[in-house]
Amino acid sequence: MPVGKMVARGLAPMVRQMAPRAAAGLFRSVLDAAIDGRGRFPGAIAVADRHLSRADGNHVMAANDIVEQHVRLAGAQGFVTSLGGFAVMAVALPANVTGLAVLQSRMVAAIAHLRAYDLSDPRVRTAVTACLLGEDAIDELITKGALPATPLAIATAPVHDPTLDNRVAAELGTILTARVGGKRLGLTVSRRIPLVGGGVGAVVDAVSTYRVGRYAQGELPPRRSV
User: Fold this and answer.
1) Model pTM?
2) ∠ CA 50-55-58, rounded to 5°
3) E strands along 126-165, which residues?
4) Under a CB-based contact definition with an 8 Å cutoff, are residues 216 and 111 in contact?
5) If DSSP codes are grouped into helix, strand and coil, which group holds residue 38?
6) Half-sphere exposure of 88 (CA within 13 A, CB side)
């Protein structure tokens, strides 16, 4: 079953009708599920510890394996939720976007845990959210003054700023609702073609997840010798 259906069933249809800030509030709860886990969906700490054990304690290898695993999962669910073409897009695309966000946030949080960031710290959770925006969006928002600093600076700030947390979540909510609304027209059109849409969905979601993972690896260096 795709991750979007496992974790976000019932949430995606509501996102389509929400304003960006309302979607941001909903998305924060999705992030909590990704970090803490829900039912059979393991949270970020469990995922990180499992990969670290398989890598015989090699943190670099474990982080790379986490990214590779989530790239595969993102590609698989991107294919499944895009396979039906136009007929099912109205339902599948919101579930796909929400599920992809769950996967990517768990991936980033697992990397952060490997590198000794405390996932119970609200500053770190804000930084995880910021990583999902991607490097280009972060740079643009900093240039425009919409964000004060990079995810690393947010994670290591002296104090937690709830206003910043809301701002980052609102930006991500805006991106989420824009995708659900089909503003990325090229992807939307290609997904209307059965089978072809599945391949496009798989590639786009996999590449997006890979970029987020690599950005998180570069942006969140180890906080101690590991």
Assistant:
1) 0.77
2) 115
3) none
4) yes
5) strand
6) 14
Written as six digits, the tokens of 138 are: 């972060």
Do 124 and 112 meet the contact criterion of CB atoms below 8 Å apart? yes
pLDDT in tens, 145-187: 888 899 999 999 999 888 888 788 778 877 765 555 443 444 4
Annotate 166-219 with DSSP letters as a single string: HHHHHHHHHHHHHHHTT-SHHHHHHHTSTTHHHHHHHHHHHHHHHHHHHHHHHH
CA distances from 161 to 33, 142, 169, 207, 222 (A): 22, 16, 13, 32, 23
User: Which one-letter DSSP state was computed for residue 41?
Assistant: B
Under the banding of pLDDT at 50, 70 and 90, the label for residue 143 is: very high
Task: HSE, CB side, 13 Å, CA atoms: give it for residue 72.
Answer: 5
Among all chains, which residue has been given the structure tokens 């695993």? 69
Question: Tokens standing for 45?
Answer: 């700490």
- Distances in Å between the Cα of 73 and the Cα atoms of 5, 82, 94, 99 are 13, 14, 17, 10
CA-CA distance, 11 to 206, in Å (whole number)? 22
